[in-house]
């Protein structure tokens, strides 16, 4: 009987301890840092990504302002500025850093080896880069969402060939500040489809006109837009220039096709921001970043802009229309 009584007392004590711990956890206002290489402070909010994060956090029981606050650092992709912003977040300190793009991940990993880092990096192989020991167990203070699938650019080249069957030369709009993995993947895929690639570089909005003018002078028959936060932000500018130069164009995110590009094929970036909240939730509950497996997007969507196709005088093959997730008339 004494043993039973002792067991009851221990159980009650343990329960009260857990309740107290949970109450203490609930009272803390966590700081979530965002590091985004975009110079416009309202860019991510306007594009609907940060709201996707806060909405998902609320669904998980973390309402913004009550359970956590956000410390966002928007800066140009200049390496010293990014590193300074990352160091600023680390010194506050924040409890977690969400780093968006490979330059931001580079800056965050240089700034701290202790604060958990959640990556949204669509250019880098995290193991080859040294960010993680393996995808299943990163082991360091970083995990998150990475996309370096070589076949993705191959798929987009294939789509351009379906739009323009006689296509022989494609201009690749490339951001030279980013990891070269996607560009190398595009070059490899081009051999498979017997297409010549001509790389045109643009690191800033002011470079777009010159880059696409160069594409026209090189007799490119279409434009492949390689992933970049800058290209994503200024998708409308790129799409308009592509149309001006009569270049069928394909981007990564659906915003490109919705902004006037011919098509887009890739993951839903808003969904990735929401998915990053799942990582933050687990870390705030005690998980170590290095023990959380790195994930990759598993669903890709094809969006086709019929209006743009009509302006270019293209007939969209039925094989593409039946596969499209969204058709913009």
Protein architecture, described:
The protein is an alpha/beta fold and 329 residues long. It has 2 domains: 140 residues, Rossmann fold; 146 residues, 3-Layer(aba) Sandwich (Rossmann fold). 46% of the residues lie in helices and 18% in strands. It has a 7-stranded mixed sheet with strand order 7-6-8-9-10-11-12, with helices on both faces. It has a 5-stranded parallel sheet with strand order 2-1-3-4-5, with helices on both faces. β6, α8 and β7 form a beta-alpha-beta unit. α4 crosses α5. The longest helix has 26 residues. It is elongated, with a radius of gyration of 23 Å.
CATH architecture descriptor name of the largest domain: 3-Layer(aba) Sandwich
Strand order of the largest sheet: 7-6-8-9-10-11-12
Major pleated sheet: 7 strands, mixed
The amount of beta strand, in percent, is 15-25%
Broad structural category: alpha/beta
How many structural domains?
2
Q: What's the rounded overall pLDDT mean?
A: 88
CATH topology of the largest domain: the name is: Rossmann fold
Helical run tally: 15
Q: Class of the largest domain in CATH?
A: Alpha Beta
Residue windows where pLDDT falls under 50 for at least 5 positions: none
Q: Kindly provide the radius of gyration, computed on alpha-carbon positions and rounded to a whole number of angstroms.
A: 23 Å
Dominant shape: elongated
CATH-defined superfamily of the largest domain: Response regulator
Amino-to-carboxy terminus distance:
77 Å
Helix content: 40-55%
What is the number of beta strands?
12
Query: What order do the helices and strands follow?
Result: HEHHEHEHEHEHEHEHEHHEHEHEHHE
